[in-house]
Every structure is written in C-alpha cells, then in structure tokens.
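_Full entry_
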Amino acid sequence: MRFPILLAALALPMPLPIIAAPARAAEDTQLWVSEALTFKADDNDSVTLDFSQRARSDGGSGGEQALNRVTWDHRVAPGVQIGGGFAYLKSEVDQEMRFHQQLTVSQGIFQSRTRLEQRFFDNADEPGWRLRERVQATVPLDANKRWALVGATELFFHLNRAKPSDRTGLAVMRLQGGLRHSLSKSVDVQLLYMRQQTFRDNEPDSFNHVPWLSLNWRI
C-alpha cells in the first residue's frame, strides 16, 4: 500500500513559486521647441527672454506645456555672471510661477550654471525649493566656429516637498547632446537630443526622450 500512496502523492500538482515580473520603467517621447532673445544692456548686463513649447505624449505628466521666462545677468568678473529672474509655466493640469537666482561660470569650452528656484504651484500650499547644477561643453567643429558639438549634464535636487509626490534630494537628471549652427553673428540654431530621468521612490524611474530644437537671437 505504501507504493501506490507514494505515487499518488507525487502525481499531485506541485505549487510553483510565484516570480514577480520586474516592474517596467515609464517612458515617453516629447518634442520641445524654444526661442531665446538676449538684449545686451551694457558691457556687464544682459536680459534674456526665453520661450519654450513642449509637446508631451504622456498625459499623466501634465500634457502640453508652455514656459515663459525672463532672466537678468550681471558680469562680476571675466567669465563670471550672477543673475536672477521669473518664469511662468502652464500645463494641462496646473500652472506654476517660478523665481530663480543663478551663478554662471565660463572657461574655454566649458560652462557651469548653479540655479536656485522657488516654485509656486496653484495646487500646493507651500513653495518648492529646487537646486539645479548644470555643466556644458561646446566644442567648435570648424575654423570659423559656425558648427559646434554641444554636450551637457544637469542635475535637479528637491530641497523640500511642496507636493506629496515630490522626492527630496536628487530628483531629475538630464543628459543632452547635439549640434549648434551659427546662422549669423547674432543668430544660431541648436538641435539636441535629451534623455531625462526622473527618480521615484518605491517605483521604477521614468524616462523622457526629447528632441529639442532651439533658436537663439542676440541683440
């Protein structure tokens, strides 16, 4: 009797271990177009008007977005500028008013920018404070410097939680690469590819793939 009982026990279906499928990161593709107009007030001061239109395929992140910004910069030493300004950003789900202060240092092909932002949302009770650290390299590709290779990295740090979904510390990383072409002494056009990674707690990071076309005019 022992052998039939043993065979019957072996024939019973065995429970299989449940293996959770790895969570997939959220990804979407966007298209950004921006225009910048810089006025040189004097040898040390300039004002830049910056406009950006952002088509985003992921409606959950806010859908279409437009940003308008004005920035004043003052040269305090060769290659060193301090400045600040104001921006208004509107998407399909919220709107934001943003103040910023910044320090820009240029040396050769390299430029670094440290920007501190205070962000006021219409759906948050307190402002969000954010620190942005950006480093860029611009490498001329011809003797006349009409073509240049551009690469940049920018890190975003949330200093507090204005919204429950905010993550303090390192929140976003942008990697950019592309070409810049000077159409004249005062006008250039730039085409970049940007990979933006948003770090999230207890869920996979999200990634945005962004072709970015910008036109810059200096007066």
Q: What stands out?
A: Residues 1-22 have pLDDT under 50 and may be disordered. The first strand starts at residue 26 and ends at 40. Residues 63 and 76 are 40 Å apart (CA to CA).
